[in-house]
Specification:
It is found in: Cell membrane. It comes from Streptomyces venezuelae. This is Potassium-transporting ATPase potassium-binding subunit. The protein has 554 residues and is mostly helical. The chain has one domain. 65% of the residues lie in helices and 3% in strands. It contains 19 helices and four strands. The strands form two sheets. Strands 1-2 form a two-stranded antiparallel ribbon. A two-stranded antiparallel sheet has the order 3-4. It is globular, with a radius of gyration of 23 Å.
Length: 554
């Protein structure tokens, strides 16, 4: 079987698995967030944190809950790292330096999982399981809660209430993420992923020497790393490491975990707004972009340009022989079109155009299907922009799901789509202009510029993957990427929740003959075009200096 055919068959198997999970998982999540019942363990949590889960919140109160919880999480994770040297189970590792502790705390709380350290050489068991793994759960649940709040903004009328943040946070963690993670961890252990609290030990090598390895609760952290679109690896090699991702089946299973909740949330959206066709339209938009990017990535990496490529069956540099070009390309697109950032191959070793596809996937806003929660609310913001553009074309006040998109709503949406590009481009420009940061680049020229652009694109979009040719463990990069991660995560949430509150206050607008049908293929095409045009106009000059220049020169 040719490598290209094997890649296509794996893609078809992945699509079939996602299709089977779509309806039951989407409907289940809709029931979870619509339920008025509180389970006994959830009541214990509410009592411990002093929250009333039945109290409705307007958007400012909901936002305060998001920010307060996240601020406490940053402080807790920062303190845990700084105290590592005196904690049990630290494996003898010292406390993390202040700038790196800040970067890591910001990274995991922002659902980014950018790592400027070697996991197996820096973090002990307590920090890994009690700090990083916990944030993998709750940061994902925060994103889902904000998405559900926006959906309620569309579904409700004549009220500014969006639900209860604490109830949404706890339910998302306890009823959705935890059960799937338990089952997924068992699957990964069965595939060969390790799950223990072993210390550092030496293993023999065929060369006659020895190498040090440390164990850890890897399978349980690996599953939520993918399921919650987090991405931070227990080991530096991330999902290319055999302890994290042992076999081709585990590789395909991890891709499934990355995509299943973001895609299924479109069904949840359709169910909660009472119109499944609207959910299918959002799903079709996400799937079109995802499939298009996957096909383009496989084409660029399978294209043969010389004897070495022909012998290897594609661009095998930086890719695991266990997975090959096809599975690596599928994983790469899945992880950059979501806010996951996990890698099973070396992104910096992809072809010039392949690296550009990874960059563009993040620059779209990671909405196809995007991160857990963040993908849905990002796509809904773009849906509002597309409706507004359509309204300008026909001279009619735009409407979406029975809500008028007026001046206030479009300002919130515009601010949302401008924040991340501003962070990416400003920080990249500053890093290239100052004398010291460029010294961290492994390569010069277009590829070196791409390393810096990729780092800030990954951080501000809460992705976490890296070209890895960049030495990001410096005070400049730890500090600025940490700031970019926090601002890129929480500033957009401010405008999403403000938009949700504005929509919830409106009374529904009756549908007329002149209303744009947003559940039709025509609108799906308009939405795809809007996303690509907005992203292209924003990032094309930067892409032209980096991956496009490199790809055209090769």
């Amino acid at each position: 079987m040719s490598p290209a055919l094997a890649g296509v068959l794996q893609l078809l198997a992945l699509i079939a698995a996602l299709a089977l999970a779509y309806r039951p998982l989407g409907d289940y999540m809709a029931r979870v967030y619509s339920s008025e019942k509180h389970y006994e363990p959830e009541k214990w949590i509410y009592k411990a944190i002093g929250a009333n889960p039945s109290a409705e919140m307007r958007w400012p109160a909901y936002l305060r809950g998001v920010l307060a919880f996240s601020a406490v999480s940053v402080l807790f994770l920062y303190g845990l790292q700084r105290a590592q040297g005196v904690l049990p189970g630290s494996l003898g590792f010292a406390a993390i330096d202040p700038d790196q502790a800040f970067n890591t705390a910001a990274s995991f709380v922002a659902n980014t999982n950018w790592q400027s350290y070697y996991g197996e050489q820096a973090m002990g068991h307590v920090v890994q399981t009690g700090g990083l793994a916990v944030q993998n759960f709750v940061s994902a649940a925060v994103g889902m809660a904000v998405a559900v709040a926006l959906v309620r903004g569309f579904a409700r009328s004549r009220t500014g209430e969006l639900g209860n943040f604490w109830a949404d946070l706890v339910r998302g963690t306890v009823r959705i993420l935890l059960p799937i993670a338990v089952v997924g961890a068992i699957v990964l252990v069965a595939c060969g992923a390790i799950q223990n609290f072993a210390g550092i030990h030496e293993v023999g090598q065929f060369t006659g020497g020895t190498q040090q390895w440390n164990g850890g609760a890897v399978a349980s952290q690996e599953v939520i790393k993918e399921l919650g679109t987090n991405g931070g690896g227990y080991f530096n090699a991330n999902s290319a490491h055999p302890f994290e991702n042992p076999t081709p089946f585990s590789n395909l299973f991890e891709i499934f975990l990355i995509l299943v909740i973001p895609f299924a949330l479109t069904r949840t959206f359709g169910r909660m707004v009472g119109n499944l066709r609207q959910g299918y339209a959002i799903l079709a938009t996400m799937a079109t972009i995802w499939l298009g990017f996957t096909a383009l990535m496989m084409w660029t990496e399978f294209s043969h340009h010389g004897p070495a490529f022909e012998v290897a069956g594609g661009a095998m540099e930086g890719k695991e022989t266990r997975f090959g070009v096809g599975a690596s390309a599928i994983f790469s697109v899945a992880t950059t079109l979501t806010s996951t950032g996990a890698v099973n191959s070396f992104h910096s070793s992809y072809t010039g155009l392949g690296g550009g596809i990874q960059l563009l996937g993040m620059q779209l806003g990671e909405i196809a299907p995007g991160g857990v929660g963040s993908g849905l609310y990002g796509m809904l913001v773009m849906a509002i922009i597309a409706v507004f553009i359509a309204g300008l074309m026909v001279g009619r006040t735009p409407e979406y799901l029975g809500k008028k998109i007026g001046t206030r709503e479009i300002k919130f949406a515009a601010c949302y789509i401008l924040i991340t590009p501003a962070l990416v481009l400003c920080f990249t420009a500053a890093a290239m202009a100052l004398p010291t940061p460029p010294h961290s680049m492994l390569n010069s020229g277009a590829h070196g510029f791409s390393e810096v652009l990729y780092a800030y694109t990954s951080g501000a979009n809460n992705n976490g993957s890296a070209f890895a040719g960049l030495n990001a463990d410096t005070q400049w990069f730890n500090s600025t990427i940490g700031i970019a991660m926090l601002l890129g995560r929480f500033l957009p949430m401010v405008f999403v929740l403000a938009l949700a509150g504005s929509l919830a206050e409106q009374k529904p607008v009756p549908e007329t003959a002149g209303t744009l049908r947003t559940d039709k293929p025509l609108y799906t095409g308009l939405l795809v075009g809007t996303i690509l045009i907005v992203t292209g106009l924003t990032y094309f000059p930067a892409l032209a200096l980096g991956p496009l220049a490199e790809g055209l020169a090769s």
